[in-house]
Amino acid sequence: MTSDATAADPSRAEVDGPAEPTPVVFIIGAGLVGTTLAAKLLHAGVPVSGLHGRKPELSEAASALAGVLGSTGPLPDAVADADAVVVSVRDARIPEIAQRLVDERKLRPTQVVLHTSGNRPAAEMLSAARPHVKGV
């Protein structure tokens, strides 16, 4: 992705350096927020490798609406392959999902894990995942 300034002045690209690759995102939570986030990220050109939910019918609907691969049951390997994992579930379930990510060994040291709650800090809500990733 080049900015208008870089397009107008190609020498600027040398100063700014090469563009960073766009991170691949995986979203856990097939509700309204997770589905909308997946669709908006895709529309913005951000690769979304999947959308995971508890209920098969909700995951299927979210997958169709957002245009990404949906899943239920055990967390798919695509979670571990993503650069960023977004937890978009009810606030009370965020710590449970963070622990599940650890228990199912779906985290790696270069990942970032985020959540969509505005209620509590990520360091608290994602504390189980924190030692296993680059940042929360």
Describe what this molecule looks like in 3D.
By secondary structure, the protein is an alpha/beta fold. The protein is 38% helix and 14% strand. It has seven helices and five strands. The chain has a five-stranded parallel sheet, sandwiched between helices. Strand 1 (25-28), helix 3 and strand 2 (48-52) form a beta-alpha-beta unit. Helix 3 (32-43) packs parallel to helix 4.
Give a quick precis of the structure.
By secondary structure, the protein is α/β, with parallel strands linked by helices. The chain has helices at residues 4-8, 11-16, 32-43, 56-66, 78-81, 94-103, 122-125; strands spanning 25-28, 48-52, 70-71, 84-87, 112-115.
Overall helicity: 25-40%
As residue ranges, the low-confidence spans are 1-6
β-strand number: 5
Number of H/I helices: 7
How much of the sequence lies in strands comes to 5-15%
Task: Please give the largest β-sheet.
Answer: 5 strands, parallel
Name the helix and strand elements from N-terminus to C-terminus, one letter apiece: HHEHEHEHEHEH
Query: Mean of the pLDDT scores?
Result: 88
So what's the overall shape? globular
Radius of gyration: 16 Å
**SSE class:** alpha/beta
Q: Distance between termini?
A: 26 Å
The main sheet orders its strands as 3-2-1-4-5
